[in-house]
Amino acid sequence: MARFVLRRLLMLIPFLFLISVVSFAVIQLPPGDFVDTYVRNLEVQGGTVNQGQRAAIEAQYGLDRPVYIQYGIWVKHIAQGDFGNSFLYDRPVGDILKERVPRTVGIALAAMLLTWVIAVPIGIYSALRQYSVWDHLFTFISFVGLAVPGFLLALVLMYVVYEKTGWLVTGMFSPEYRAAPWSVAKFVDMLKNLWLPLLVLAVTSAAGVIRVLRASLLDEVKKQYVTTARSKGMPEWKLVMRYPVRIAINPLISTIGWMLPALVGGEVVVSKVLNIPTTGPVLLEAILSQDMYLTGALVMILSALTVIGTLASDVLLAVVDPRIRYE
Amino acid sequence: MTETATHKPQPPSGGSGKRQTRSRADRHYVNRRGAELLKEQRSARGRRQRRIEERLREASQARLVRARFTKHRLATASLILLAALYGIALFADFVAPYDKLQRFDDAQYTAPTRVHLMDQQGNWHRPFIYETRNELNQETFQYEQKVPEEAQRYPIKLFVKTEPYKLAGVVSMEHRLFGTEGRPVFLLGSDHLGRDLFSRLVHASRVSLLIGLGGVALSFVLGVVLGGISGYFGGLADSVIQRLIDFLISIPLIPLWMALSAAIPQGWSGIQTYFAITLILSLVGWTGLARVVRGKVMSLREEDYVTAARISSAGHLSIIRRHLLPGVTSFLVVHVTLAIPGMILGETTLSFLGLGISAPDVSWGTLLQQAQDVTVVANYPWLLAPAAFLVFAVVLFNFVGDGLRDAADPYSR
């Protein structure tokens, strides 16, 4: 077991390395380097940059050196907790990350829980009452759920809520709570605003989970031990819940692997639509204004957290399911 | 899997030759059962049954798949509708009554034009539209379109003559599928610049539907090559490619797509941007396909006929091409069908965020950009029409892919 965990942790190293390379490529790819952008932004604001200042900035980030050395400098700074500066917000990128990333993570995790809350009962019901009206209905809905991108669902739900109640679901807090310290009232207010994005994310990812759960439970209830238990007179409800469901739920942990990237990615877009102050709107603005340090850092942090989460789910699966061999 | 029926099946006994030589022995009670069988064989039903069986024996894999697929009614219907959608996309210039950029004066945010069949006097006509006037509703203080009394009718005509254009940029034409004279018809309303949403939608479907095909074609090549290498050679190449796939599927796609599309220079032409987006989408899209190919190739590699080919000193490349790839074709087709909607959704998401296709080109995503503001949608709900098309197309692809999966699996039923 310890060796298995260790191996997984070792695998994390090349992954994190690759992520940093990809993120650095993101910074490098756009035409012109970011000093151009920086200078242009300053000039738009009415400031001027002389040649000396420009050279100083270039030297600071090693822009006059070969690319791989630039990469090395960038990584070294990050290892020291310095993600560079955001031109767009005129703040250290690290501060923006500290503010926004936990919200994205929180929303993604909450959406994951909600996905299960929605998908598990539906999946169990669909499998136990295969080909019933409800099963067909859920199958159909999950087909449509797979077809509707999150931003669209958010848009339509927002529109419906607005039409019916005249209430615009947007942002994370109502204006009066935005600056207020945390309190029960503020938390309730947050839930009032966050139910829509959470629902959108959960519904779009629930479709896949329902399919997985339904298929694995259908396999399980056909097994002989179920027949044996039934012939011994065990009540159906207790029987199903105690054995096949417990086994069929295990693969759900392994679905974290593909759910998490989709949720994080979906959160970015849905937050943009619903104007929630997480990484989504910042990432989009950073990209549109070519604030490449911010973009690179966001891509890197989001990717790294997702990869770590996925590997954690692997370990979790191995702990929960004794059938997994540690190899 | 080519159509190679190596042996013709034996002609069924009891054919026409036997009829003349029927002897008295046939009528003996011991042979009665035989006579009954004979009779059944000669009956219309029996003959039909036999013909089907014969055909099944000779049928190629492709034919069997097709036969099983057509039994799946939902999938067949979806395929036909999809073909129609692609037809509309290809002939967009002809189907759309107006150009995607044509503006109409005083037609900003016009609600969908109502098509009538009956006039104010209660007489029936071919489909026509009425002239309308903007009137201020005294209760809601919003402009509404009212049909004045004694309004003039404008019939909707088929194959109307318009200014010349080039169909798909090649064929010169000057007719369009339908249109009106004297007054524009907005089947799905118009946008903030007074452009016909239906025409724009039709033009946009060309970009959106074809980007799915393009992206899949690219990821198909990558997936087959890398998956094939991974499965066939195994060893180090396999580990490296597998880790790469593990890596790619564990990072969140959308932020990466967004960041990559920032690298598209703003001065690029529509076509260049289009290909860049396709490239970005397929950069990650190949992973799923590579996994399928790898798994199949790995299991096929151990088959006897592959060993036989290797012993007769066939090269790696020819073994892969002639013996392994045909075995995975059906799975590839299924996977590709199911991968297209993902590409379409990816493009739509990027364009919706303003990172994909940009004006003057249109795609479903750019059309939906106008609907970003809920207050706008609340006033002009027809702006959500592209969403319906998008969901429709994606659902169709999913149904077709599902039907194909059932049909392509030789062990189903």
Automatic annotation (TrEMBL), chain A:
Record keywords, A-Z: Cell membrane, Membrane, Transmembrane, Transmembrane helix, Transport
Protein name: Peptide/nickel transport system permease protein
Membrane topology, from the record: Multi-pass membrane protein
Transmembrane segments: 105-125, 137-162, 194-213, 243-264, 293-320
Record domain ABC transmembrane type-1: where: 101-317
Family: Belongs to the binding-protein-dependent transport system permease family.
Compartments, record wording: Cell membrane
InterPro entries tied to this protein: BPD_transp_1_N, MetI-like, MetI-like_sf
Pfam families linked to this entry: BPD_transp_1, BPD_transp_1_N
GO CC annotation terms, alphabetical: plasma membrane
GO terms classed as biological process: transmembrane transport
Automatic annotation (TrEMBL), chain B:
The protein's name: Peptide/nickel transport system permease protein
Membrane-topology annotation of the record: Multi-pass membrane protein
Matching Gene3D superfamilies: MetI-like
A GO BP annotation: transmembrane transport
Domain ABC transmembrane type-1: 205-401
Transmembrane feature ranges: 74-96, 207-233, 245-265, 271-293, 324-345, 380-400
Biased composition regions of type Basic and acidic residues, renumbered to the chain: 23-36
Pfam families from the UniProt entry: BPD_transp_1, OppC_N
Localisation: Cell membrane; Membrane
Region (Disordered): 1-36
Recorded superkingdom: Bacteria
InterPro entries for the chain: MetI-like, MetI-like_sf, OppC_N
SUPFAM superfamilies associated with the record: MetI-like
Family named by the database record: Belongs to the binding-protein-dependent transport system permease family.
Organism: Kribbella caucasensis
